[in-house]
Write a structure and sequence with these properties.
Helix content: over 70%
Number of helices: 18
Shape: globular
Low-confidence stretches: 1-12
Distance between the termini: 36 Å
Structural class: mainly alpha
CATH architecture of the largest domain: Up-down Bundle
Order of helices and strands: HHHHHHHHHHHHHHHHHH
CATH superfamily of the largest domain: MFS general substrate transporter like domains
Mean pLDDT: 84
Strand content: under 5%
Largest sheet: none
């Protein structure tokens, strides 16, 4: 039997049910993001009144650690664990970040206990000590996320071929949105006994329960998702090249790729501004729901379900109806304007203090995000050289991850600045964050107008190939 025959035999088994089963891991990752960027931000900023800047910096640590996936990709390629190159790393990483999320919560309770003695946040030796420990746990959480997700992404490459890889990746990554919806509903159910302003002991017990049950579910999903998959479906051999895989991209290489031509540079700038603008509201949305709309923790957690539902609906509508009619770049332009309008509605909703208005704005923001994301990803694929697709997509992914970390820090910092400048008008303080989001999205349309796919495919393709070949050759000699 030839290698090609072997490939055909194996890939035929990677059917639709298996793709959705693999998606359970991605579903679990997005459930954890709801717990950290949603529930924890609300608890830290509103319930225990930590400075939003500090909260956002802690929450951004996992994003800033994303370059470590290069190292984890190399380790999983070179060294097996429990007889497997991917499975062990996925399961061990998942177990570590599940435990780390619960430990981080316990550190937060201790940090609150130390800070509460002074009546307001003051940097004392105990406060600094517990904050340092919280940052350490956040770093461990981020490293575990990188280890598990990198090995999982490598597994997807191992079990697929060029013919079916886009289908595998598309279905698996769509499960991220399902996870956001499930986590929002599950958090609402587990926290619904909490009332606004509940005693700290009651709050602590309820949130501890949530951070026990959800991580256990996520670990279970990771087990089910890839159990037996590597042994049965992997096409990996000792001679399989992995230098062109997404997780092999360092920050230096990503910068070379993304600035290789005027068109890739223009699109990179567009992607950077768009990503930062999209995620600025992440650390402040749930505290906003609690402080301005007087929504209990369970109700603010449910906003994630509205947001995720909007994105899922937009994925289908944009891919099948909008983009084919308008074209990818015009659809991205519409998405930017739509995001700007919905972010403006998020800010304006605060002046009504009407929870229904906020929920509507969140759904619209999810729809707008889905439209923009679908169009931007499609446009990105048009600006990708097939021979170096892994390199290119890895560079985009790393840049977007870092941009998300920057956005989270900006969102929390701007909220603190707003609250200091406008201590008697907290709605306006939050409104500054959403206003900045609107400005960012409008600015991104200008960068989008500089993108010309035809120019990339004709005038700059050769230049891009030459430059990427240069750094691949230098990498191989090193």
């Amino acid at each position: 039997m030839t290698n090609n025959d072997k490939l055909d035999t194996n890939t035929a088994k990677v059917n639709l049910p298996l793709m959705f089963r693999l998606g359970l891991f991605q579903m679990g990752l997005s459930m954890m993001s709801v717990l950290t960027l949603g529930i924890l931000s609300r608890v830290m900023i509103q319930e225990i009144a930590m400075p939003a800047t500090l909260v956002s910096m802690v929450l951004a640590i996992p994003a800033f650690i994303s370059p470590s996936r290069v190292w984890f990709g190399q380790i999983s390629d070179a060294k097996s664990m429990w007889g497997y190159h991917r499975t062990g790393y996925v399961w061990l990483g998942t177990g570590i970040f599940a435990i780390a999320s619960f430990v981080a919560l316990q550190v937060i309770w201790q940090l609150n206990r130390v800070a509460s003695h002074t009546g307001s946040w003051v940097w004392t030796t105990p406060t600094i000590g517990w904050t340092a420990l919280l940052c350490l746990v956040a770093a461990i959480y981020g490293l575990a996320i990188c280890a598990s997700s990198t090995a999982f992404a490598a597994l997807l490459v191992d079990i697929s071929t060029e013919k079916n890889r886009s289908q595998v990746v598309g279905i698996v990554w769509s499960m991220l949105m399902v996870g956001i919806i499930v986590a929002g509903i599950l958090s609402h159910q587990l926290l619904q006994q909490l009332t606004l302003g509940a005693p700290l002991e009651v709050l602590q017990a309820a949130v501890n329960r949530l951070f026990t049950i959800v991580p256990i579910i996520v670990f279970g999903l990771a087990i089910v998702a890839i159990f037996g998959v590597e042994k049965k479906y992997s096409l990996r051999t000792k001679n399989t090249p992995h230098t062109n895989r997404e997780d092999s991209i360092t920050l230096g290489k990503a910068w070379k790729v993304l600035t290789a031509s005027r068109q890739t540079g223009s699109f990179f700038t567009f992607l950077l501004v768009t990503s930062i603008s999209l995620f600025i509201q992440e650390p402040v949305l749930e505290p906003y729901a609690g402080q301005i709309f007087k929504m209990p923790l369970a109700e603010s957690a449910k906003l994630n379900a509205f947001y995720g539902s909007g994105i899922l609906i937009a994925y289908g509508i944009t891919g099948f109806l909008i983009a084919p009619r308008l074209g990818k770049r015009k659809t991205a332009y519409v998405g930017c304007i739509f995001v700007a309008l919905s972010a403006g509605l998020l800010g304006l909703s605060g002046f009504t203090a009407n929870p229904s208005f906020l929920k509507l704005a969140v759904v619209l923001f999810g729809l707008a995000t889905g439209v923009l994301t679908t169009a931007a990803v499609s446009l990105m694929l048009d600006l990708t050289i097939a021979e170096s697709a892994g390199t290119f997509i890895g560079a985009w992914g790393l840049a977007q991850s870092m941009a998300r970390g920057v956005a989270v820090v900006i969102g929390g910092s701007i909220l603190d600045v707003g609250r200091r400048l406008l201590p008697h008008n907290i709605v306006l303080a939050y409104g500054i964050v959403f206003a900045l989001e609107v400005v960012g999205m409008l600015l991104s349309t200008w960068f989008l107008n500089q993108v010309n796919v035809a120019e990339f495919q004709t005038d700059t393709k050769l230049k891009w190939v030459e430059r990427t070949d240069d750094f691949h050759n230098s990498s191989n000699t090193n």
